[in-house]
């Protein structure tokens, strides 16, 4: 477990270092539109790539990635180091990193729910409707998933725990077979409202 936590911290440090390098390079470019597009390609895409693996980590572990996003927002809007960044994130309509991770977990759960996920991923979670111990209960008619209990903090980072924890409270109303673009927009709106 110590090795895995150490590897995750190294990975986060590597992503943050790489993103800060690209931010320094982008700073030389003139023009807000070009800067915004370059940050989207070189920085935000790195923050979002496989970020569902970071679900369940403490906030302090994800903080370096949030600092990267804050620096990117300051660069896009030409803010100083002492300017507060929350209004900038709100103006750019960027979710904080913690909520971006929840969004990715919910998107994975939606793919599982609509049958578009690989079989090995779908078998890692179990819906309440498929549970043998709840056939006649009202909760068996919902699209919620069982949140598996674990004994370790490391176990709480698996999809069967983090995916269910992200999906159940936010998406009970969105369990209709929505196309992914609609889901992504509705989910971002909900998470944006919670973040700000």
| Distance from first to last alpha carbon | 34 Å
**So what's the overall shape?**
globular
Provide a count of the helices. 8
Number of domains: 2
Low-pLDDT regions: none
- Give the % helix: 55-70%
Mean pLDDT, to the nearest integer, reads 80
Content-based structural category: mainly alpha
Largest sheet: none
Instruction: Give me the strand/helix succession.
Output: HHHHHHHH
Q: Can you count the beta strands?
A: 0
- Over all CA atoms, what is the radius of gyration? 19 Å
Our estimate of the beta-strand percent is under 5%
3D architecture notes:
It is a single chain. The chain has 2 domains: 2-94; 100-195, no CATH class. The chain has 196 residues and is mainly alpha-helical. The protein has 8 helices and no strands. The chain is globular.
What attributes characterize this protein structure?
mainly alpha, 2 domains, globular, 196 residues
Write the layout of secondary structure elements.
Elements: H1 2-26, H2 32-48, H3 59-77, H4 86-92, H5 97-113, H6 119-122, H7 159-170, H8 180-195
Helix pairs in contact: 1-2, 1-3, 2-3, 3-4, 5-7, 5-8
Quick gist of this model?
The protein folds into two domains: 2-94; 100-195, no CATH class. 60% of the residues lie in helices and 0% in strands. It has helices at 2-26, 32-48, 59-77, 86-92, 97-113, 119-122, 159-170, 180-195.
